[in-house]
Amino acid sequence: MRIAQVAPLYESLPPKLYGGTERIVHYLTEELVRQGHDVTLFASGDSSTTAKLIACVDEGLRLKRHCNDPLAYHIIQMEKLSTRINEFDILHFHTDYLHFPFSNMLEIPSVTTLHGRLDIPELQDIYHTFPYQNLISISENQRLPIPQGNFVKTIYHGLPTNLHHQGKGRGEYLAFLGRISPEKGVERAVEIALATNTKLKIAAKIDKTDFAYYEEKVKFLLDHPLIEYIGEISEQQKTEFLGSAKALLFPIDWPEPFGLVMIEAMACGTPVIAFNRGSVPEIMEDQVTGFIVDSVTEAIEAVSRLKYLSKMDIRRVFERRFTAAHMADNYIDVYHSLVKDRYKNVHRRSMPRLNKPA
């Protein structure tokens, strides 16, 4: 199958540091190529891929100097795609709703994976205006704010089986991995660590939009001897960071659409203590891959029960549910279904009409 993967341009594929969406697009693209499909990736020029790469900007926009208008390069991306449109059987977008006016006019089928939160008021008008866009959700919970969306399937994220390996020990620290922002709950992670007298290692990025929050609410917490702030880490560093941890803390305070870090921890055999929000009950298997909790008090109590969990069982759940091969197989099913439906519709419109008898 000839597939166009249209990625956001904020990070390279794979990202050099943080970047969940771009990381998943990379894993999907590489697995589709591995399975023998003809894949073209529309992404930043510093991406690394076995697919055909169409560079839409020289480097990922987050690390690009003097980029004041990232939307400009996404418009260029749409133009580059439009000039090659007849080379593909299916278009797979990962660019939110930016392409909707463009893809709405195409005969070639397309599908859009929504990677972000959907409980934003303006999105109601978007999905009322574009009711026929084929959408993929990354959890059932993610769909809830826009029941009018034309969702064709929920497909969970997946990682290459050999990307991470089961850690050797339980470690002496709790881990926090991701972003320092109000909804990610790093303050609660610190509270849990201090209450259990356990070291906490924080590997996280700080976006410009969250810097004021960091300065006011978080920075002073890092002065405690039990708390260690590492900063952003690369994909290669995650295996050791997560695999050596006693547990990953995921104390979120928002409707998390998926939570990639949870399955990264599972791939390392590391249990997760996660707050019961968003996709967490779908991704986690309570008392197998960790503990689902409703409060800091419950999280503190869960730390004492980590010794009853099996790292091998956690890794098995990852291999059964969250591999890149499993993810790609689900997407291929969707691609075939949409191509088949489009062929039927075109064939039906092209059939000669029979005159009714007088």
UniProtKB/TrEMBL annotation:
Record flagged with keyword Kinase: no
Domain Glycosyl transferase family per the UniProt entry, residue ranges: 170-312
Entry-linked Gene3D superfamilies: Glycogen Phosphorylase B
Residue span, Glycosyltransferase subfamily 4-like N-terminal domain: 18-126
GO molecular function, one term: glycosyltransferase activity
Pfam families, alphabetized: Glyco_transf_4, Glycos_transf_1
The protein's name: Glycosyl transferase
Organism: Sphingobacterium gobiense
